[in-house]
Amino acid sequence: AQAVRNNPAAGYPPLPDLQAGIIVHIDAQSYRVTSKLGQGTFGSVWAAEDCSGPSGNCVAVKEVSCKSWPALEAAELEGRFLRIVARDCHQGDQAWTKRLPALINSASHPLGHETWRVLLVMTRIPGASLDKYLEVKKPKEIVEANKLRETLVTSCDLAADMVSQLGTAFEHVSKHVVHRDANLSNILIDEPKEGPPQFGIVDFGLAVDAAAWRQGGWQQQTIGGDCRYWPCSAWLIFGLGAEELIKLPKLRAEYEQGLDQHTLGLTALQIIADLCSAPEDKHSQQHHGANTGDCLLLQKLSAFCDAWKQYWSHSTTLWQAVLKAFQGITRVRDLQADCANTHAHEIVRANLKAVRASAKDLREVCGSGSGSSPHLGRVVELLDTALLMVSDGDAEQPQTWDKITSALHSRSKDGPVAFTRGTPSSTKSVHGAEPHGADASKGAGHSTVTGAAGTGGSPEHPSVQAEAASSPGAAAHPRDIALPKHPVGITSCTGSAAGQTHADGAIGTSPPAASASSPHATDAATAPGVHAPEP
Q1: In sequence order, which ranges of 55-173 are alpha helices (DSSP H)?
Q2: N-term to C-term CA, the chain
Q3: Which residues on adjacent β-strands are paired with residue 407?
């Protein structure tokens, strides 16, 4: 953990501000910066060439601004996790290691009193962010009814490749790390000329030590990640505090052991919903022209997409409220109280139950028709796997990664498909999407998904770090917010309040006295003790 802090390369000038064309020296290694992959408020990610290695050896350089000792420690922690991947890479030719960035080098330079700039040099993961990919691929017009079956199969193929490949990677690294933010924005997709798409997972800025987390360390950690993907246990902690979660064994198990499974499973279902939903203004025309044999399947698919839209709409409303709180427009404590009073965690739970129920219905219809249409068997397989992953808080224990990956039995451990794939438009390359490298997606300031069709959308906000909380009014992306887990003066509440929101559609619009403290944010520039705006 001291490697970053004590690594200003002796004999070389202080680390320069990065820009295209500059050469950075770290430990006798030289890297020529070629272009910026993305920008956040407190950090950026750059493409670079390793001048000391083979010609054309591309790397990614994450530049993080740290304004406190805890922020520096958080950057070191990210480096430590990436070093674990690098160690495993050297232990053999393991395909899963290519799906994660591995640390190559690191350095830090003091900029002033308790202020540092940290550079993390890592392997570059090819591809474009999955959120941008899906934004291009979302239907802009009605998908003809006779092509929806093909679109459904193709979307499930895409989701299954993602789960199979990244699930294998998580199976190996989950003993060390809980990522906490494995959603569309931090997943990269690369489409080779031959074979299935290849997926990678980046940005370990919110990651925590897995062993400590599962032994109760989460009680000393703040909540992290894009809150639109939080399970109901995370919302319960936010509204009622960790003490309440401890009383509920199933939800505690969900939070301690199933965060990454839940988020990746939700992302798989989101792929289906995004690629199969009709544009909102043409939703009523979606099944026009369907033949009798497809009507039931299309009805169940439509019901699933509607359930997803309901879930995503409510989660986006919460996400927007969290953003206002972090910007200092409203107060975190008031938002917490509002979430407790409106039973936000129960609404999320009810919406997740509806998504799961509609996915089961779709799975049953596809299962009954798989004899006449073998391709539907692939839909069944993916939905079965996603249902193992997405939690509504009722399971005794989350499924382990080895069970999840083994459920996708028609794919090998490294993701190749064991059957003939279709080639509908949804698997073509994204035109105009700039590929990014390792850890380039979220920490680089790429926007997250703006909402599934029908949610009204949400504005895109560049990703920044939770350290912005030290500057009242600073804009930030909600996934980077360090949220306090112990609200003041809030008692336990039970029961379902599905559908309850404020008249203005937002939850928690009064200002937050934030005692938010977290080491975890995009680019890992924030740490415990960093406080959000005072009331």
Answers
A1: 69-89, 130-137, 145-173
A2: 35
A3: none
* φ/ψ (deg, to 5) at 40: -120, 175
The C-alpha atoms of residue 376 and residue 48 are separated, in whole angstroms, by 44
Sort 209 into a burial class: Cβ within 10 Å, 0-12 / 13-18 / 19+: middle
Q: pLDDT tens across 447-481, in order?
A: 332 222 233 333 333 332 232 223 333 334 444 44
**Which helix (H) or strand (E) segment is 107 a member of?**
strand 103-112
The structure's pTM equals: 0.76
Q: Say what the pLDDT of residue 326 is.
A: 84
* One-character DSSP codes across 407-472: H-TTB-TT--BSSPPP--GGGSPPTTPPP--TT-TTTTT-------TTS----------GGGGGST
**CA nearest neighbour of 381 among 91, 100, 159:** 159
CB proximity list for 141: less than 8 A, separation 6 or greater:
279, 282
User: Beta 58-66 vs 115-123: how paired, if at all?
Assistant: antiparallel
pLDDT of residue 52: 79
Assess contact for 199 and 127: CB atoms under 8 A: yes
Tokens in use for 175?
A: 């003993």
Q: For residues 298 and 292, what is the distance between their CA atoms, to the nearest angstrom?
A: 10
**Cα distance between residue 377 and residue 360, in whole Å:** 14
